[in-house]
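Q: I'm writing up a methods section and want to include an example of the input and output format. Could you take the sequence below and give the corresponding predicted structure tokens, formatted cleanly so I can copy it straight into the document?
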Amino acid sequence: MSHTLQQEIDSLPWFHQIDFGNGILSPGAIRASAIRRMEHYIFRPLDVGGKSVLDIGCWDGAYSLAAVRRGAARVLATDHYVWHEGPGDRRSFELVRKHLAPSIEVMDALVEELSEDRIGTFDTVFFMGVFYHLRHPFALLEQVAKLAREVLVVESRLTQGFVPWPMMRFHPGAFENDRTNWWTPNRACMEALLRDVGFNRIRFTRSDRRFRRGLFHAWR
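A: Here is the clean output for your methods example:
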């Protein structure tokens, strides 16, 4: 069985390196050690026990899985682009769900399709690795913010430099060889945007050792 599972895993594309147990690991650009480090940053100020969690842009589901393992009462994982147009494959996510966390709910949906009328609201919303891929990031951040009853967790590529005022750089073409990279805000900009869409307390973490990315916890 383990040999068959490893073969199935190896036949699929992976972004997250997932530990399936018994020495079975998926390949992945984001190694298991980096995922554990990010989990520490994400969950250190959070208690998701008994709470509902929405994971927007879940890809292979590493952080949806982490929320389940930390006692979340409900986890809804959503994605669309990477499963259909990007380098990912929903079958990878479904393997994670089947073997490690069958309680995770899944929805194939664009960010633009996520609304309170369609999916309701959640105690905690993860919006990680998505913001800078959006053509209209402020409008969609405002839309996503309405889904978070307590806390919104945003992770984004940030613009380099130490400008003290809010600014966001537009990247026409293909920034870092990715045509879906449109915007890089600075820290001050993201914090201002989060306050503007209704969050009062914001915690910033430098989640990338090369200072290219940032993690924001925003509470109401």
